[in-house]
UniProtKB/TrEMBL annotation:
This is EAL domain-containing protein. Pfam families: EAL (PF00563), GGDEF (PF00990), PAS_9 (PF13426). Residues 164-303 form the GGDEF domain. Residues 13-56 form the PAS domain. Residues 85-137 form the PAC domain. SUPFAM superfamilies: EAL domain-like, Nucleotide cyclase, PYP-like sensor domain (PAS domain).
């Protein structure tokens, strides 16, 4: 049979005829059952079958198995009713390679209007599909782990039915930054790839996994809502993490913290993406609570956690405007010479009153200031305000040995910190000897990094104190290397002076005296504590026994009354 003549009879559109017969077209004619009756040279070239192998074979000889039964059912239903079908088909060549063709299938109808023959006109679009696949891979998949990303997650979620139940797991690898620091980013990437493979192996076909970014993963379980099933799956994940990961014959163990948001019903499509974001955010919130428990565990999301997160978000928003809106104040708590029992110095402490949140504890907002980088401008404001206040007191005849300011590790790492302090001292005309900078042990743990900055500060003439001494990484090494003036014994050792704490307190006092440091005990609340420390020749004390932190206006009264006035209920201290 001459398929060219048949085309001329059956196709009314001359353009289609020319397209079908040009050299780039792949053409085949089949009977009504799909048995190939003829095929052009381009068909044999692309399919890798000879003409003899094709003639008499069913069209499905090139079936790749890629398309579903429903796909082919729709195709045959369309052409069987005498209509033209157009679409894209992935075929399989004889050598096992795959190729894509843009296909038009047209039926030839008999006098009864029934198809007795079909002609398929194909164009090779394999290269285009490869480009599309590359673009899709970049757009929808994480390049390191090949896991889907959030864009593909949205598509997955939109394909689920309304009121469908999903359970969301939010995973974060514990102390991943330390793994990167200790083993290098190459090892970190391998760890992420292996973890991704292990997580993928835990899932069913209907579940979904996403690499959120960094060391975070999101898993959405389809129609799993019983508590026992959820806990079983969480334990399964933790078990996967407990298996060691080997890199260059080195065994590395990692753990994960998991937050779980469960029994979530999907709304209609108009609100689907927003709902899934909420589910993920709730699981993320629960994950942070798992972190607080030490990691290597899972935690279910609760309403109280969501309330805490809402407070955190409000706090973050408010903090960004707190400085420019004059919401910060500075209070002062006196240092008392234990021999003279007179005020010898003050510690400045930051307080924040938010119009929206009320009084916020420093334990809440100072870590957030550090996290947001706002501690740099706020810390600079504190230093300037304290120096200005110190100058005012000196003009009033109040000469304290020193006034201390807490310095964050973030400030100390700021390259402008020393120059900013120097400019403040010059502007306020304060003798640097009256200013004391309090650093925690953790701040100066890495002596090689902090020593240069601390030496520069000491060169300005300011004093350096180690705050909360004994709770961090105490080391005689840094005590000998750095120009430290004062050790502040943490209040936890003073609160209950039992035998063990006696030994620690005595050791710190003796060590400080031998190294010619001033030793100050924090948290003194009773006469017995005071008497004990005086008996041990501790130099100075601080605590509610004398005064809670007070406003600057109360300092002249305290100073003139030798710190004997007690001010009532304790206040938060940072």
């Amino acid at each position: 049979m001459n398929y060219e003549s048949e085309l001329n009879k059956e196709l009314k559109n001359r353009h289609d005829i020319e397209t079908a017969l040009n050299e780039s077209s792949i053409v085949a004619v089949t009977d009504h059952r799909g048995v190939i009756q003829s095929a052009n040279e381009k068909f044999t070239e692309l399919s890798k079958y000879t003409n003899e192998e094709l003639i008499g074979s069913y069209q499905n000889i090139i079936n790749s198995g890629y398309h579903s039964r429903a796909f082919f059912h729709n195709l045959w239903k369309t052409i069987g009713s005498g209509k033209v079908w157009k679409g894209e088909i992935k075929n399989k060549a004889k050598d096992g390679t795959y190729y894509w063709v843009e296909t038009t299938i047209m039926p030839f109808l008999n006098d009864n209007g029934k198809p007795y023959q079909y002609i398929s006109i194909r164009h090779d679009i394999t290269q285009r599909k490869q480009y599309e696949e590359t673009i899709k891979q970049l757009a929808y998949y994480d390049q390191l782990t090949s896991l889907p990303n959030r864009h593909l997650l949205n598509e997955w979620g939109n394909n689920l039915e309304e009121n469908h139940k999903i359970t969301v797991f939010f995973l974060d690898i514990d102390r991943f930054k330390s793994l990167n620091d200790n083993y290098g980013h190459y090892a970190g990437d391998i760890i992420l790839q292996k973890i991704a493979d292990r997580l993928r192996s835990c899932l069913r076909d209907s579940d979904f996994i996403v690499r959120e970014g960094g060391d975070e993963f999101i898993i959405l379980l389809d129609n799993v809502y019983k508590r026992e099933d959820i806990e079983t799956f969480a334990s399964k994940i933790i078990d996967q993490f407990e298996k060691p990961i080997y890199i260059d014959y080195q065994s590395i163990r990692v753990t994960t913290s998991i937050g779980i948001s469960t029994n979530q019903l999907l709304p209609g499509h108009d609100h689907r993406s927003k709902a899934i974001e909420t589910f993920i955010r709730n699981a993320d919130t629960a994950m942070y609570h798992a972190k607080k428990q030490g990691g290597n565990t899972y935690c279910f999301n609760t309403q109280s956690q969501n309330h805490d997160m809402e407070r955190y978000q409000h706090m973050e928003h408010e903090l960004r405007f707190a400085l420019e809106n004059d919401q910060f104040t500075i209070v002062y708590q006196p240092f008392i010479g234990l021999e003279s029992e007179e005020v010898v110095g003050l510690e400045s402490l930051l307080r924040w009153y938010s119009p929206y949140l009320g009084a916020v504890s420093p334990a809440e907002f100072i870590p957030l200031l550090e996290e947001l980088g706002l501690i740099i401008p706020v810390g600079k404001w504190i230093l300037k305000s304290v120096c200005q206040q110190l100058k005012e007191w000196q003009n009033e005849g109040i000469f304290l040995q020193r006034v201390s300011v807490n310095v964050s590790p973030v400030q100390l790492r700021n390259r402008d910190f020393v120059n900013d302090l120097k400019a403040i001292l010059t502007e306020t005309k304060i003798d640097p000897a009256y200013l004391d900078l309090e650093l925690t042990e953790g701040t100066i743990l890495n002596v090689s990094e902090s020593a240069a900055v601390i030496n520069d500060l000491q060169a300005l003439g300011v004093n350096i104190s180690i705050d909360d001494f004994g709770t961090g990484y105490s080391s005689l090494n840094y005590l000998k290397q750095l120009p430290i003036n004062t050790l502040k014994i943490d209040k936890s050792f003073i609160h209950d002076l039992d035998f063990d704490d006696d030994v620690i307190v005595n050791t710190i006092i003796n060590m400080g005296q031998n190294l010619n440091f001033t030793v100050l005990a924090e948290g003194i609340e009773s006469y017995d504590q005071l008497a004990y420390l005086q008996n041990q020749n501790c130099h100075e004390g601080q605590g509610f026994y004398w005064s809670k932190p007070v406003n600057a206006t109360a300092i002249p009264y305290l100073y003139n009354n030798n710190g004997q006035e007690q001010y009532g209920a304790p206040a938060s201290k940072h």
